[in-house]
Every structure is written in C-alpha cells, then in structure tokens.
Amino acid sequence: MENRISNFAEFYPFYLAQHSNRICRRLHFAGTSLVLIVLVYALLEGPLALLWLMPVFGYGFAWIGHFVFEKNRPATFQYPLYSLIGDFVMYKDILSGRIPF
What we know:
Helices cover 66% and strands 0% of the residues. By secondary structure, it is mainly α. Helix 1 packs across helix 4 (80-95) and helix 2 runs antiparallel to helix 3 (53-70).
C-alpha cells in the first residue's frame, strides 16, 4: 500500500523534488505570475469574467513544464490542495532566492 502524505510539511520536500528542472520551475513561476496579474487586474480594473484565465495560465505553464521538461506527472493529480499551496510557497521561495530561478 502507498504511503499517503498527511500534511504540507511532509508534502513540500516531495513537491520540490518534482521540480528539479530549472525550466519547469521557470514555467511554474511564469504561470503563477500571470495568475496573480490576472487576479489583480480583474479585481481592480477588468471584468471578473477574466478570472477563468487563472487556471489556464497556472496549470497550462506548469503542465508543460512537467510533461515536456521534468518528464513526470504533476503532483496536483494526487495532492491537488497541497500542490496549489506548494506552487505559491515555491513562488515565494524563488522570489526570496531560497530556490534558484
């Protein structure tokens, strides 16, 4: 039987191991940046209908990174909530220099 990860502290090292390819991390960073830009723009200036672009940018860039460069299956298929949180934590860690861009 497979060991299930039961909390985010256990999940994040696994998540980072799934993002060892620099291009994959950069695609995640680009997608998350676009998600944040769309969110802010839609809330402040644009129609809320633009919010549908958020998962397109977020998952689109990330999945290209995984399938094309990382050659693995995105963690979001197994741990969707932890994966979403992990993406934003990794984004913060890249911005702070803790993880190389």
